[in-house]
Every structure is written in structure tokens, then in C-alpha cells.
Please model this.
Amino acid sequence: MEFVDREAWGAPATSAAAFLGSARGIKVHYLGTGYGSRGHTRCADYVRQVRAAHLADVRERYVDIAYTGLVCEHGAVYEGRGTHRRPGANGNTELNGLDYALCALLAEDGGGLDIPPPAMLHGLVDAIEWLRRDGDAGSWLGGHRDGIATECPGDRLYAWVQAGAPRPDDGHDQDVDPPGIYTVRIWDNLSAIARRLNVDWRDLAALNSIRPPYTIYPGQKLRVPAGPGAPTVPPYPGAGAFVIGRSHSAVADLDRHLVLRGYTRHHDGNGYQPSSLFSEYTRRNVADYQRSRPELRGDPDGYPGPLTWRLIHS
Ligand SMILES: [Zn+2]
Ligand SMILES: [Zn+2]
Model:
């Protein structure tokens, strides 16, 4: 766990917020405002900006950053008001006295970085464990929307929180699921998973009691309806699809999987955006993915071969 305490990101060591002896549990939030992926060196600065904006909010009259803690896309946990301080983000004094408030640095749907990378989910679990260990937080876990009418923390995070905030299965430990079970490895939609499993999405939803808006999350175990059931991988497009400076539709597909799996740290400074162009950034991100897989570690050249192609789709 990378924990960044208040002084380390540039806030006074102790919060001026009211004392809180213990909490029923924890509410998860997101920014819910346009937010783009960025390099980790800029995350502390962003947390400082959030605090400045809260202190400047004349209507809310916050005494400090409103959240108990914040988590960036790289999985670092930033101490907000911290343990044993009443948060200010849950809606009103009663709700703030009930639960801690953890905020993911995540945009609303369509607002930029709107898919929580696996590292962010790990960071949120780290933060939950911190508050239970040091802040006397109870086992209750929910989202901002459980207290008041709001979209926060978005459908994806909310589905994950409702499932008990499981650590994502990064696919490093387990490559083969037992028969009849499929582990979701990346944020995806149900119809895409059903296509990959070669089953009808309605059967998949019914068997797993998944209801609208049909959100699933990394780490979720799905029971697969009887049928073919084997993940389908698009045919390998050939090495000619991956040439630096050239575009190919297979690159857009590759990029999507890099983004969903969180292999995006190389970019031009404005965050890594999926596109059909195979760039040096694409190559370096693929190399990171290859280094993460024991089967590929021998040759992390960043150019997808048939095995890289199959693994990143499974
Ligand atoms: Zn919220
Ligand atoms: Zn970061």
C-alpha cells in the first residue's frame, strides 16, 4: 500500500474537522466531474487542488478537504481528513457522522477516466482496510448514493462496492477457471463477455442474477450456462498489424484491453487514449503487460505475438 499522509501532499498535519470516535462503515465516492488519466507525479497536486476547491466553497463552508481519504488510478491512498475525523462529503451532518468517505479519482461516465483500473480497486481495498484497522470503521460498506439521491460513485464502482469490494483478479495467478466458472478480469459489459463465452447474454444474466444496468466488475466469478463456454479470441491479425507509426483496426482492440487492464503508464502527457495507431507508447505499454505475465516474460519486446494476443483477450 502506498500511503501518502497529509503533510506529504501538502496539507496541515492534522485536520480541523470534528472528532469521530467510530463509524458504522465506509461510503465510496467518485469525483463525478471531468477527470483525465495522468502521470502519478501529478496526483498529489490534484489532491491539493481538490482541498483548495473545497476550502473555497462558500456554500458548503468546509473546514478541510471533504473526504476521509482519496485513491488515485495508480492505487496510492491519500490521507484526507483521516481517521477519527468526521468527513464532509456524505450529504449532511447525520450521514457524515455515520460513515467515512473515500473518494476515487474517477470521472463520471463519459467524463474521461471513467473505468477504474485494477490498481485503483486495490488502492480502495487498501484504504478500506486502513479505516477498519486504524479508524474503528465497522463492516458496513456502501456508496454515496445509499444516503442521498446522487449518481455517485457511478454504476461500475457501485456494483463492485455492493459485491463487497473484492480485490481484482489480475489474471497473474490463475489462468484457467474450473469448468462452468468464468472469472471477469477487466471491466466489461455483459454482452461482450457473453460473446467471448459464446453464450446468450440473457442466460448469463439470469444464471448469475445480474439485473439492469448489468454491471460486472473485475474479480467477479460468473457461472457459465451450459454450452460451448470457451472464451473466443479474435484471430491473430499477424505481426504486420503492429508496426510503429501504422494504423490497424487490431490496434484499437489491443488498446482497449491495455486500458481496461491498466497498462497505460506510457503516453504523450495527456493520458493514454485507445486508437488504431501503433505508437511507441503502445509498444511500451504492451511490454509492461508482457512483463506481468510469466509466460511472456522471456520476450517483452512490446510487439504482440500470437500468445500475447490470446492472453490479453482471455
Ligand atoms: Zn459522492
Ligand atoms: Zn497516482
Residues 40, 43, 72-74, 76 surround zinc ion (ligand 2) (CB under 6 Å). The chain is about 30% helix and 10% strand.
